[in-house]
Design goal:
Strand content of chain B: 25-35%
Radius of gyration of chain A: 19 Å
Oligomer: heterodimer
Distance between the termini of chain A: 50 Å
CATH topology of chain A: ABC transporter involved in vitamin B12 uptake, BtuC
CATH topology of the largest domain in chain B: Rossmann fold
CATH architecture of the largest domain in chain B: 3-Layer(aba) Sandwich
Helix content of chain A: over 70%
Helix content of chain B: 25-40%
Number of helices of chain B: 10
Radius of gyration of chain B: 17 Å
Number of domains of chain B: 2
Largest sheet of chain B: 6 strands, mixed
Strand content of chain A: under 5%
CATH architecture of chain A: Orthogonal Bundle
Number of strands of chain B: 10
Order of helices and strands of chain A: HHHHEEEHHHHEHHH
Largest interface: A-B, 19 and 26 residues
Number of helices of chain A: 11
CATH superfamily of the largest domain in chain B: P-loop containing nucleotide triphosphate hydrolases
Bound molecules: adenosine-5'-triphosphate, magnesium ion
Structural class of chain B: alpha/beta
CATH class of chain A: Mainly Alpha
Shape of chain B: globular
Shape of chain A: globular
Largest sheet of chain A: 2 strands, antiparallel
Order of helices and strands of chain B: EEEHEEHEHHHHEHEHEEHH
């Protein structure tokens, strides 16, 4: 039983990280119809920002905040440089542009920094176990779950309460009519990218706490997973992204924990088969995006 | 002239929807823009707001050219459109739909609460539905919400695209009463309608559009008296 609860905590913490990433993809997709394949590079940028901030002697918390800010700002800059000039062309062109951004950043990371991982040790207090209700739980997992919950709450409040948040939701359903409200289209799109960058930065912190290093491909795998999570939940649906992320976390942790040793080699394949099976029964995802009006 | 459209051309690829249309609306007027399906009425209104591809001609509002401005800036200058088919934000509540109508600038945002009350007084049907999702409103309620949302930006001129479309006769009457009330409050209106009779009853002047061109123009009295409207409508003018 204890082991089971332990796995639930692991699943929530991994799934929560996927959820934050999937949400970032979904926010941009809902407003612009673009799947930003350079989303993972925002995570990697956070990693390097923290690495260099620490190397420069900045205190750990400052480095973390800086890392998240770098991802947020980079997302906004990425939109201006790589997507805004292409806004009137079709979605495929923007998609290719996002591939190009990802590829260029990889090369830059490899050539200007290093192809090898750079260590970012997690702070001491995260290395311990904490006793919760008689259960030994890793502090990292606990922090992950808390940070994910706070991020989701913050995002929900922003989208429900603030004018800009309401405008972002409006733009996701009818972009032209949102402009007809006198709302600056560029501001809404920049906001969507800022949100996605912020979430990628936060997810990067959680990922780094687990892995302890950054390399040029750091963002690739988690964002691939987040993309799967977003599709699983229903592409473009925000609640779907969260559901998909958590479910994927549970599938992966469940398989790792309970699959017999002899079959562990097929874990990823089995996980993806489960995803495909879910999509077979729910072709538009578990919480499909509500029909957009255009 | 408050709104002036000169030699407007709108093309969608090979489709030449609006062909050299000129029209004008004076401060305080209600002007009806009539014409059969596909004549290009919506294209003209959308082009005024920068939402349809204008391939030639110009639009001026308050004496300033607006044809090259982005939609959101045109709206901030006091011209707005309630589009065909209502297009409320279905997954936002009535309240959120209204709020976002006043999001254009800081002054409007400060006045949001007061303006919401004003709109609810003008559209009592919406009062009990503040927290309801707009997509769950009836067609008539959605149309009221769409107009109220447009009015939240305190426009000087309002372009209304077929507000009575698909509504029951008593709701249509309510909508036309409301348009008359807006005129009394000093809002200038360019009204696109299929309901010729009711439109001419409240409009000061009118234009008849056929196949992307102005076929007939004049005061409502002129349009009504000659019988030319019916003939033009049927394409035998
Ligand atoms: N986005 C578009 N792409 C291609 N063609 C379009 C588009 N919008 C309108 N058209 C075409 O332009 C012409 C004029 O359309 P418009 O919607 O302006 O007519 P309308 O007078 O408003 O008609 P209705 O009374 O049916 O609303 C039509 O032939 C229509 O098919
Ligand atoms: Mg029309």
């Amino acid at each position: 039983m204890d082991l089971f609860l332990q796995q639930v905590v692991n699943a929530l913490s991994l799934g929560g990280t996927y959820a934050l990433l999937a949400l970032g993809l979904a926010v941009v997709f809902s407003v612009l119809g673009l799947i930003n394949f350079a989303h993972g590079e925002l995570m990697t940028l956070t990693g390097y920002a923290i690495f260099f901030a620490l190397a420069a002697g900045l205190p750990y918390p400052v480095a973390l905040v800086l890392g998240v800010l770098v991802a947020t700002a980079s997302a906004v800059v990425m939109e201006r440089v790589a997507f805004r000039p292409l806004r009137n062309s079709n979605a495929t062109v923007m998609l290719l542009s996002s591939f190009a951004v990802a590829a260029m950043l990889h090369v830059l990371f490899q050539n200007l920094i290093s192809a090898r991982p750079k260590a970012i040790p997690a702070p001491q207090f995260l290395m311990r176990n904490v006793e919760v209700l008689g259960l030994q739980i890793g502090a990292v997992q606990l922090v992950s779950i808390a940070v994910t919950a706070i991020s989701l709450l913050g995002l929900t409040l922003f989208l429900r309460r603030s004018t800009l948040g309401i405008a972002t939701r409006a733009a996701a359903s009818d972009f032209n009519i949102t402009r007809l409200m006198g709302i600056n289209a560029n501001l809404v799109i920049s906001t969507a990218f800022a949100i996605s960058g912020l979430l990628a930065g936060i997810a990067a912190l959680l990922w780094l706490f687990q892995r302890g290093s950054v390399d040029p491909l750091m963002g690739f795998l988690p964002v691939l997973k987040a993309f799967i999570a977003a599709v699983l939940g229903g592409l473009g649906s925000l609640s779907g992204a969260v559901v998909g992320g958590l479910l994927l976390g549970f599938i992966e942790v469940g398989l790792r924990a309970y699959l017999p040793d002899g079959m562990q080699a097929y874990r990823e394949a089995i996980g993806l088969t489960i995803v495909i099976a879910v999509l077979f029964f729910y072709p538009s995802g578990l919480v499909p995006r509500r029909e957009a009006v255009r | 002239m408050l709104l002036e459209v000169r030699d407007l051309d709108v093309r969608y690829g090979a489709v030449h929807a609006v062909r050299g249309v000129s029209l004008a609306v004076e401060q305080g007027e209600i002007v009806a823009l009539l014409g059969p399906n596909g004549a290009g009425k919506s294209s003209i209104l959308n082009a005024c707001l920068g939402l349809a591809p204008r391939s030639g001609g110009s639009v001026t509002f308050n004496g300033a050219p607006i044809s090259r401005l982005p939609t959101e800036i045109i709206v901030r200058r006091g011209l707005t459109l309630t589009p065909e088919g209502r297009r409320v934000f279905p997954h936002l509540t009535v309240m959120e739909n209204l709020k976002i109508g006043a999001a254009a600038n800081a002054k409007l945002r400060r006045e949001t609460a007061g303006r919401v009350e004003e709109m609810l007084a003008l559209f009592p049907a919406l009062t009990d539905r503040r927290t309801q999702l707009a997509g769950t409103l009836s067609g008539g309620e959605q149309q009221m919400l769409a107009i109220a949302r447009s009015l939240m930006s305190a426009p000087q001129a309002l372009l209304l695209d077929e507000p009575s479309l698909g509504l029951a006769p008593n709701i249509v009457d309510q909508i036309f009463d409301l348009i008359a009330e807006l005129k009394r409050r000093g809002v200038t209106i360019l009204l696109v309608e299929q309901n010729v009779e009711l439109s001419l009853a409240i409009a000061d002047r009118g234009y008849l559009l056929a196949s992307g061109r102005i076929a007939l123009a004049g005061t409502t009295a002129e349009l009504k008296s000659t019988g030319r409207l019916e003939r033009a409508y049927l394409g035998i003018a």
